[in-house]
Amino acid sequence: MVRNIKCIIVDDEPLARSVLVDHANQIDQLEVVAVCANAVEAFGYLQKEEIDLVFLDIKMPKISGLELLESLDHQPLVVFTTAYREFAIRAFELDAIDYLLKPISLGRFMKTVAKANKYLMGSSLAEPKESIPKKDITNQPTVEPELLYIKSQRKIIKLDLSSIKYLESLNDKVIIHTCDGEVVTTQRIGYLEEKLPKTQFVRIHRSFIISAEKVTAFNSIMVEIKGKELPIGRNYRAQALGILQKKSK
């Protein structure tokens, strides 16, 4: 399912803004609602309007793109657009969904828009291996972890995967329900889904990811975990039920 994506473009270079606007105009799904020449202008706009996606330059006068992102209480999806490679790690620590190096081709731009759409629709961000750019550090294959590291209240919290019952997306935060309590993070549920092993955790709804091992009962419309009933979304039903039925055999 495809939805319109409201985006803004933030860059102090007129030519760079023009290239991004031209690329965006090639994609019917994208709606460019503002083009900003600096981070201050963009901050004012983001405080007033609900934006899905920001294409954000890093090196700008007065306030950098990184500083702008850090200043936002409610962050839209962010794609950094820059000529500098050295900020990539910091960008992904701030949960940017992509990092585009200038000059940006239309093909690479389109891949990023497709990734943003998957985040916004709450589906998996996994892509076929042959389509993964060699230098895209967000999509490198990883060994399924036994631990999950969560950013919460300016700390990194280490969670044992076996303790997690389910994840709940609520407004601009995610609540991780564990056997020992709750952990709250501003990291997006789609981002966390990518960090969880697919053999153990199942997306059942736009707002819920569950540990299949913690399910005590289920039917075609809900799962039960320790007496808590969680809905199975229509778009996730076939895949979720297939996994749960296989686990129950």
Q: TL;DR?
A:
The chain is α/β, with parallel strands linked by helices. Helix content is 28%, strand content 31%.
Report on the structure:
The chain has 249 residues and is of the alpha/beta class. The chain folds into 2 domains: 5-121, Response regulator (Rossmann fold, 3-Layer(aba) Sandwich), CATH 3.40.50.2300; 147-248, Beta Barrel (OB fold (Dihydrolipoamide Acetyltransferase, E2P)), CATH 2.40.50.1020. It has helices at 14-25, 39-48, 65-71, 88-93, 106-121, 189-195, 237-248; strands spanning 5-10, 30-36, 53-56, 77-82, 98-101, 147-152, 155-160, 164-170, 173-178, 181-185, 201-205, 208-211, 217-218, 222-225, 228-231. The protein has 7 helices and 15 strands. The relative contact order is 0.09.
CATH superfamily of the largest domain: Response regulator
CATH topology of the largest domain: Rossmann fold
The Cα radius of gyration reads 19 Å
Structural class: alpha/beta
Q: Give a quick account of the main beta sheet: strands, pairing sense, barrel closure.
A: 5 strands, parallel
Q: What is the CATH class designation of the largest domain?
A: Alpha Beta
Average of per-residue pLDDT values: 85
Total of helices? 7
Strand proportion, as a percent range, falls in 25-35%
Per CATH, which architecture of the largest domain? 3-Layer(aba) Sandwich
Strands, count: 15
H/E topology pattern: EHEHEHEHEHEEEEEHEEEEEH
| Percent helix range | 25-40%
- The CA-CA distance between the termini, in Å, is 32 Å
What does the overall shape look like?
elongated
